Structures are given as C-alpha cells and as structure tokens.
Amino acid sequence: MEKKFPLPPFNLETALLKVQQGEDAWNSQDPHRVAQVYTPDTEWRNRDQFINGREEVVLFLTEKWKKEQDYKLKKELWAFTDNRIAVRFEYEFHDESGDWFRAYGNENWEFNADGLMQRRFASINNVPIEAKDRKFV
C-alpha cells in the first residue's frame, strides 16, 4: 500500500510539511511526480474543470504547463484539521505570447489515512502583470 508521509491527523508541523511538499512537487512541473501524491481515484475541481483519477491529473497538468510557461508557485498554509488542509497560493507564468500573469487562489485538500490526497478543490483567478512586476523571479 502506498503511503505519503506525513500522515493525518495533521498538527502544525506536519501540515506545514505537507504544504511545502505540495509546493515543491508543483514547481517541478512534472505531471507524473505531482500525480503520485493523489489517490488513484482522486477527485478535483480546478476552476471550471472536474478531474477524476491520476490519469486525468497527468493530462490536465501536461496541458497546463504547455500553456503556463516559466511557472513558479508559492503556497501558504491557511488552516488544518484532522485529515484536511486549506492553503492560499499565488503563482506566476507567461503564455505563448510572452504575456505575464499572476494567479491567486485557495485550495481545500482532503487526505486518506495513507497521506494521499483524495480530494482537491481549487478556486483561482488570473491577473495580468508586467514582467517588471514579477514577485517570483
């Protein structure tokens, strides 16, 4: 059986670690690496998309990072309890035309007993920015 430490129930130290692990995985821009922290039947809502299972996660992230180039993400723990964590985040990227954006959002995460994320619900908004205004260089 797969386990992704730390396992729930979370305390402040383990919740912070889980958030940092998530940030590191997403910043790798490796869809297969990211997908391994989710249950095989994971359930997502990402903006207006509904994604189910690791295979769909890989497809979604592969397409995402083709469009969102030079992606850099920062996550911040917002709250936690038992097997749930809430984060706020922001990330920057540019599109194929070279236009830069900063995305702001919130995610709610729910983990199974083995530390795999079984549900992820994300609300995200993009704001156009100038390259000179980037925070994550």
TrEMBL record:
Matches recorded under Gene3D superfamilies: 3.10.450.50
Keywords, in A-Z order: Kinase, Transferase
SUPFAM superfamilies the record matches: NTF2-like
Pfam family, one: DUF1348
KW Transferase (keyword) present: yes
UniProt entry tagged with the keyword Kinase: yes
Single Gene Ontology MF annotation: kinase activity
UniProt name for this protein: Histidine kinase
Classification of source organism: Bacteria, Pseudomonadati, Bacteroidota, Sphingobacteriia, Sphingobacteriales
